[in-house]
Specification:
The chain is α/β, with parallel strands linked by helices. The chain has helices at about 15-25, 45-50, 60-75, 80-90, 125-130, 160, 165-170, 185-195, 210-220, 230, 270-280, 290-295, 320-325; strands at about 1-10, 35, 55, 110-115, 120, 135-140, 175-180, 225, 250, 255, 260, 265, 285, 310. The chain is built from 13 helices and 14 strands. Helix 1 packs across helix 12 (about 290-295) and helix 3 packs parallel to helix 8. The chain starts with a strand and ends in an 8-residue tail after the last helix. Helices cover about 35% and strands about 15% of the residues. It has one domain (about 1-334): Spore Coat Polysaccharide Biosynthesis Protein SpsA, Chain A. The model is unreliable at about 330-334 (pLDDT under 50). The longest helix is centred in the N-terminal third of the chain and has 17 residues, at about 60-75.
Protein backbone atom coordinates (compact mmCIF):
# COMPACT_ATOMS: atom_id res chain seq x y z
CA UNK A 1 0.00 0.00 0.00
CA UNK A 2 1.19 3.51 -0.88
CA UNK A 3 0.68 6.50 1.39
CA UNK A 4 1.84 9.95 2.45
CA UNK A 5 3.58 10.60 5.78
CA UNK A 6 4.23 13.75 7.76
CA UNK A 7 5.53 14.84 11.17
CA UNK A 8 3.43 17.06 13.40
CA UNK A 9 2.23 18.19 16.81
CA UNK A 10 -0.18 20.92 17.89
CA UNK A 11 2.43 23.62 17.27
CA UNK A 12 2.04 23.11 13.51
CA UNK A 13 -1.74 22.61 13.59
CA UNK A 14 -2.55 25.24 10.96
CA UNK A 15 0.13 23.97 8.59
CA UNK A 16 -0.96 20.37 9.05
CA UNK A 17 -4.59 21.20 8.21
CA UNK A 18 -3.43 23.03 5.07
CA UNK A 19 -1.28 20.05 4.04
CA UNK A 20 -4.08 17.54 4.61
CA UNK A 21 -6.48 19.71 2.62
CA UNK A 22 -4.00 20.02 -0.24
CA UNK A 23 -3.68 16.22 -0.34
CA UNK A 24 -7.46 15.92 -0.30
CA UNK A 25 -7.72 18.43 -3.15
CA UNK A 26 -5.62 16.07 -5.29
CA UNK A 27 -6.75 12.64 -4.08
CA UNK A 28 -10.02 13.11 -2.24
CA UNK A 29 -9.91 10.53 0.57
CA UNK A 30 -8.22 7.89 -1.57
CA UNK A 31 -4.65 8.58 -0.41
CA UNK A 32 -3.98 7.34 3.14
CA UNK A 33 -1.92 9.60 5.39
CA UNK A 34 0.07 8.74 8.50
CA UNK A 35 1.12 11.46 10.95
CA UNK A 36 4.22 10.76 13.03
CA UNK A 37 3.90 12.61 16.37
CA UNK A 38 6.79 14.96 17.16
CA UNK A 39 5.91 14.69 20.86
CA UNK A 40 2.90 14.00 23.07
CA UNK A 41 1.26 17.39 22.34
CA UNK A 42 -1.22 16.14 19.76
CA UNK A 43 -4.65 16.96 21.22
CA UNK A 44 -5.58 19.50 18.52
CA UNK A 45 -4.38 17.45 15.60
CA UNK A 46 -6.13 14.36 16.98
CA UNK A 47 -9.39 16.32 16.91
CA UNK A 48 -8.58 17.66 13.43
CA UNK A 49 -8.36 14.18 11.91
CA UNK A 50 -11.43 12.76 13.67
CA UNK A 51 -13.48 13.46 10.55
CA UNK A 52 -10.77 12.20 8.20
CA UNK A 53 -10.94 8.39 8.13
CA UNK A 54 -8.01 8.15 5.73
CA UNK A 55 -5.65 9.81 8.25
CA UNK A 56 -4.04 8.07 11.25
CA UNK A 57 -1.55 9.06 13.94
CA UNK A 58 1.30 6.57 14.32
CA UNK A 59 1.23 4.87 17.71
CA UNK A 60 3.72 2.01 17.48
CA UNK A 61 5.56 2.78 20.71
CA UNK A 62 8.16 0.06 20.16
CA UNK A 63 9.12 1.64 16.84
CA UNK A 64 9.08 5.21 18.22
CA UNK A 65 11.26 4.28 21.21
CA UNK A 66 13.64 2.30 19.00
CA UNK A 67 14.28 5.29 16.73
CA UNK A 68 14.61 7.55 19.80
CA UNK A 69 17.36 5.28 21.09
CA UNK A 70 19.06 5.08 17.69
CA UNK A 71 19.24 8.88 17.42
CA UNK A 72 20.41 9.33 21.03
CA UNK A 73 23.19 6.83 20.37
CA UNK A 74 24.25 8.78 17.28
CA UNK A 75 24.48 12.14 19.04
CA UNK A 76 26.18 10.57 22.05
CA UNK A 77 29.06 9.75 19.69
CA UNK A 78 29.34 13.26 18.22
CA UNK A 79 32.39 15.11 19.61
CA UNK A 80 30.86 18.60 19.96
CA UNK A 81 27.08 18.61 19.34
CA UNK A 82 25.82 18.19 22.87
CA UNK A 83 28.16 20.78 24.36
CA UNK A 84 26.85 23.30 21.81
CA UNK A 85 23.21 22.43 22.42
CA UNK A 86 23.53 22.61 26.20
CA UNK A 87 24.96 26.12 25.97
CA UNK A 88 22.03 27.33 23.89
CA UNK A 89 19.01 25.54 25.34
CA UNK A 90 20.01 23.38 28.31
CA UNK A 91 18.78 20.44 26.19
CA UNK A 92 21.07 17.47 25.62
CA UNK A 93 19.42 16.71 22.28
CA UNK A 94 18.44 19.42 19.78
CA UNK A 95 14.93 19.37 18.31
CA UNK A 96 14.42 15.89 19.65
CA UNK A 97 11.38 14.53 17.90
CA UNK A 98 12.21 15.60 14.33
CA UNK A 99 13.59 12.12 13.68
CA UNK A 100 10.32 10.43 14.57
CA UNK A 101 9.47 10.59 10.87
CA UNK A 102 11.87 7.62 10.62
CA UNK A 103 9.01 5.51 12.00
CA UNK A 104 7.78 5.41 8.39
CA UNK A 105 10.45 2.77 7.77
CA UNK A 106 8.42 0.51 10.10
CA UNK A 107 5.04 2.07 9.38
CA UNK A 108 1.80 1.10 7.67
CA UNK A 109 2.83 1.85 4.06
CA UNK A 110 4.93 -0.38 1.82
CA UNK A 111 5.93 2.72 -0.15
CA UNK A 112 5.52 6.29 1.02
CA UNK A 113 6.18 9.91 0.28
CA UNK A 114 7.20 11.94 3.32
CA UNK A 115 6.18 15.63 3.34
CA UNK A 116 7.04 18.15 6.05
CA UNK A 117 4.02 19.78 7.71
CA UNK A 118 5.05 23.10 6.15
CA UNK A 119 4.53 21.81 2.62
CA UNK A 120 1.53 21.74 0.30
CA UNK A 121 0.87 19.13 -2.36
CA UNK A 122 0.42 20.66 -5.80
CA UNK A 123 0.32 17.60 -8.09
CA UNK A 124 -0.42 13.87 -8.05
CA UNK A 125 2.61 11.85 -6.95
CA UNK A 126 2.60 9.21 -9.71
CA UNK A 127 5.96 10.42 -11.02
CA UNK A 128 7.53 9.99 -7.57
CA UNK A 129 5.99 6.60 -6.81
CA UNK A 130 6.94 5.31 -10.27
CA UNK A 131 10.59 6.05 -9.53
CA UNK A 132 10.37 3.73 -6.52
CA UNK A 133 10.06 0.87 -9.00
CA UNK A 134 13.74 1.46 -9.80
CA UNK A 135 15.15 3.23 -6.74
CA UNK A 136 14.91 2.85 -2.98
CA UNK A 137 15.10 6.59 -2.34
CA UNK A 138 13.66 9.41 -4.43
CA UNK A 139 13.92 13.16 -3.79
CA UNK A 140 13.08 16.28 -5.75
CA UNK A 141 14.91 19.35 -4.48
CA UNK A 142 17.97 21.55 -4.93
CA UNK A 143 19.71 21.03 -1.58
CA UNK A 144 22.72 19.67 -3.50
CA UNK A 145 23.67 23.28 -4.22
CA UNK A 146 24.19 23.94 -0.49
CA UNK A 147 26.21 21.41 1.48
CA UNK A 148 26.41 23.63 4.58
CA UNK A 149 23.06 22.54 6.01
CA UNK A 150 23.70 18.82 5.58
CA UNK A 151 27.24 18.04 6.74
CA UNK A 152 30.07 19.80 8.55
CA UNK A 153 31.76 21.38 5.54
CA UNK A 154 35.01 22.05 7.38
CA UNK A 155 35.41 18.51 8.68
CA UNK A 156 38.64 17.02 7.28
CA UNK A 157 36.97 13.61 7.41
CA UNK A 158 34.04 14.54 5.18
CA UNK A 159 35.70 13.83 1.84
CA UNK A 160 37.24 10.66 3.27
CA UNK A 161 33.77 9.32 4.05
CA UNK A 162 32.09 10.58 0.87
CA UNK A 163 33.74 11.47 -2.44
CA UNK A 164 33.38 15.11 -3.50
CA UNK A 165 31.32 14.09 -6.53
CA UNK A 166 28.81 12.33 -4.28
CA UNK A 167 28.55 15.38 -2.04
CA UNK A 168 27.76 17.53 -5.08
CA UNK A 169 24.95 15.29 -6.31
CA UNK A 170 23.53 13.04 -3.60
CA UNK A 171 22.64 15.30 -0.66
CA UNK A 172 18.99 16.22 -0.25
CA UNK A 173 16.47 18.16 1.84
CA UNK A 174 14.65 16.06 4.43
CA UNK A 175 11.37 17.92 3.86
CA UNK A 176 10.24 15.73 0.95
CA UNK A 177 11.36 12.25 -0.02
CA UNK A 178 9.99 8.87 -1.07
CA UNK A 179 11.10 5.47 0.15
CA UNK A 180 10.00 2.01 1.25
CA UNK A 181 9.19 0.10 4.40
CA UNK A 182 12.00 -1.88 6.08
CA UNK A 183 14.69 -0.19 3.99
CA UNK A 184 16.84 0.34 7.10
CA UNK A 185 16.88 -2.99 8.89
CA UNK A 186 18.19 -3.31 12.48
CA UNK A 187 21.36 -4.79 10.98
CA UNK A 188 21.91 -1.76 8.74
CA UNK A 189 21.23 0.57 11.66
CA UNK A 190 23.80 -1.28 13.80
CA UNK A 191 26.36 -1.09 10.99
CA UNK A 192 25.81 2.65 10.52
CA UNK A 193 26.06 3.26 14.26
CA UNK A 194 29.35 1.39 14.41
CA UNK A 195 30.82 3.53 11.61
CA UNK A 196 29.69 6.67 13.44
CA UNK A 197 31.27 5.46 16.67
CA UNK A 198 34.52 4.89 14.83
CA UNK A 199 34.76 8.63 14.16
CA UNK A 200 32.41 9.40 11.29
CA UNK A 201 29.90 11.13 13.58
CA UNK A 202 32.11 14.21 13.39
CA UNK A 203 30.86 14.98 9.86
CA UNK A 204 27.22 15.32 11.00
CA UNK A 205 25.70 18.82 11.09
CA UNK A 206 24.09 19.31 14.53
CA UNK A 207 21.83 22.24 13.59
CA UNK A 208 19.72 20.08 11.27
CA UNK A 209 19.70 16.80 13.19
CA UNK A 210 17.13 14.82 11.24
CA UNK A 211 18.42 16.01 7.86
CA UNK A 212 22.07 15.21 8.46
CA UNK A 213 21.29 11.74 9.86
CA UNK A 214 18.97 10.87 6.97
CA UNK A 215 21.56 11.94 4.41
CA UNK A 216 24.19 9.88 6.19
CA UNK A 217 21.90 6.83 6.39
CA UNK A 218 21.05 6.94 2.70
CA UNK A 219 24.56 7.69 1.43
CA UNK A 220 26.48 5.42 3.80
CA UNK A 221 24.17 2.41 3.43
CA UNK A 222 24.55 2.61 -0.34
CA UNK A 223 20.86 2.22 -1.18
CA UNK A 224 19.92 3.33 -4.69
CA UNK A 225 18.75 6.93 -4.88
CA UNK A 226 17.66 9.49 -7.42
CA UNK A 227 17.01 13.23 -7.36
CA UNK A 228 14.49 14.26 -10.01
CA UNK A 229 15.89 17.80 -9.91
CA UNK A 230 19.06 16.37 -11.46
CA UNK A 231 17.44 13.89 -13.84
CA UNK A 232 14.33 15.51 -15.28
CA UNK A 233 14.71 17.41 -18.58
CA UNK A 234 15.30 21.12 -18.04
CA UNK A 235 11.96 22.02 -19.61
CA UNK A 236 10.08 19.75 -17.17
CA UNK A 237 11.68 20.36 -13.78
CA UNK A 238 10.28 22.85 -11.31
CA UNK A 239 11.33 24.53 -8.11
CA UNK A 240 9.66 23.77 -4.82
CA UNK A 241 10.66 26.41 -2.25
CA UNK A 242 8.83 29.47 -1.05
CA UNK A 243 12.07 31.40 -1.59
CA UNK A 244 11.44 31.26 -5.36
CA UNK A 245 9.41 34.33 -6.25
CA UNK A 246 8.59 33.56 -9.89
CA UNK A 247 5.92 30.88 -9.45
CA UNK A 248 2.57 31.72 -11.04
CA UNK A 249 -0.71 30.84 -9.31
CA UNK A 250 -3.63 29.47 -11.31
CA UNK A 251 -6.70 27.92 -9.70
CA UNK A 252 -4.84 27.68 -6.36
CA UNK A 253 -1.97 25.71 -7.90
CA UNK A 254 1.53 27.06 -8.56
CA UNK A 255 3.38 26.79 -11.87
CA UNK A 256 7.06 27.24 -12.66
CA UNK A 257 7.52 28.39 -16.28
CA UNK A 258 4.33 26.61 -17.25
CA UNK A 259 5.02 23.40 -15.32
CA UNK A 260 2.90 22.50 -12.32
CA UNK A 261 4.85 22.20 -9.07
CA UNK A 262 4.88 18.83 -7.33
CA UNK A 263 4.89 20.51 -3.92
CA UNK A 264 5.56 23.87 -2.27
CA UNK A 265 7.80 24.02 0.80
CA UNK A 266 7.42 27.03 3.11
CA UNK A 267 10.96 26.45 4.26
CA UNK A 268 12.41 28.94 6.72
CA UNK A 269 9.04 30.33 7.86
CA UNK A 270 8.25 29.67 11.52
CA UNK A 271 5.13 27.90 12.73
CA UNK A 272 4.48 30.96 14.88
CA UNK A 273 4.09 33.06 11.73
CA UNK A 274 1.34 30.79 10.38
CA UNK A 275 -0.36 30.82 13.78
CA UNK A 276 -0.30 34.62 13.91
CA UNK A 277 -1.75 34.99 10.42
CA UNK A 278 -4.51 32.45 11.11
CA UNK A 279 -5.31 34.47 14.25
CA UNK A 280 -5.90 37.54 12.13
CA UNK A 281 -2.52 39.32 12.15
CA UNK A 282 -1.95 40.84 8.73
CA UNK A 283 1.56 39.59 8.10
CA UNK A 284 2.41 38.98 4.48
CA UNK A 285 4.69 36.19 3.30
CA UNK A 286 5.30 34.55 -0.08
CA UNK A 287 2.33 32.60 -1.46
CA UNK A 288 0.22 33.47 1.59
CA UNK A 289 -3.03 33.26 -0.39
CA UNK A 290 -2.18 29.72 -1.50
CA UNK A 291 -1.62 28.68 2.11
CA UNK A 292 -4.82 30.37 3.32
CA UNK A 293 -6.83 28.76 0.53
CA UNK A 294 -5.84 25.26 1.64
CA UNK A 295 -5.93 26.03 5.36
CA UNK A 296 -9.56 27.11 5.11
CA UNK A 297 -10.60 24.89 2.20
CA UNK A 298 -13.42 23.30 4.20
CA UNK A 299 -14.25 26.31 6.37
CA UNK A 300 -13.84 29.44 4.18
CA UNK A 301 -16.05 31.43 6.55
CA UNK A 302 -13.29 31.21 9.17
CA UNK A 303 -10.59 32.59 6.89
CA UNK A 304 -9.22 35.80 8.42
CA UNK A 305 -10.30 39.02 6.74
CA UNK A 306 -7.55 41.62 6.76
CA UNK A 307 -8.45 45.31 6.81
CA UNK A 308 -5.09 46.88 7.64
CA UNK A 309 -1.96 47.29 5.58
CA UNK A 310 0.05 44.03 5.61
CA UNK A 311 3.35 43.91 7.41
CA UNK A 312 6.13 41.95 5.71
CA UNK A 313 7.09 38.78 7.59
CA UNK A 314 10.77 39.74 7.32
CA UNK A 315 10.34 43.45 8.07
CA UNK A 316 13.02 44.88 10.36
CA UNK A 317 11.80 45.56 13.91
CA UNK A 318 10.54 49.03 14.72
CA UNK A 319 12.76 51.54 16.55
CA UNK A 320 10.72 50.99 19.72
CA UNK A 321 11.16 47.21 19.53
CA UNK A 322 14.90 47.60 18.89
CA UNK A 323 15.23 49.84 21.96
CA UNK A 324 13.26 47.40 24.12
CA UNK A 325 15.35 44.51 22.81
CA UNK A 326 18.52 46.38 23.67
CA UNK A 327 17.17 46.89 27.16
CA UNK A 328 16.22 43.21 27.34
CA UNK A 329 12.51 43.98 27.60
CA UNK A 330 11.22 42.82 24.21
CA UNK A 331 9.44 39.51 23.89
CA UNK A 332 10.38 37.84 20.61
CA UNK A 333 8.60 35.24 18.53
CA UNK A 334 10.47 32.20 17.37
Amino acid sequence: MDGICTLANDRVYDQLVALLNSIEAIYGQAMPVCIYPYDEKIEQITQAIASRPYVQIYNNQESILSWDEFVRNIWDTHPTAQQKWLKVSQEKYHRFGTHRRYGAFDGPFDRFVYMDADTLLMSPLDKIFNQLNEYDWVVYDFQHTDLSHVYQEKSPNLTEVFAIERLKKEIFCSGFYASKKNIFTPEIQASLLEKLRQGEAEILYPSAPDQTILNYMVMRSGISSQNLALHLPADEKTGCCVTSNHFVAKDHVLYDKGNRLTYLHYIGLSSQLFHQVCNGENIDFPYRDIFLHYRYLHEPEKRPKFTTQPKAYNAPPSLGTRILKKLGLAVGHK
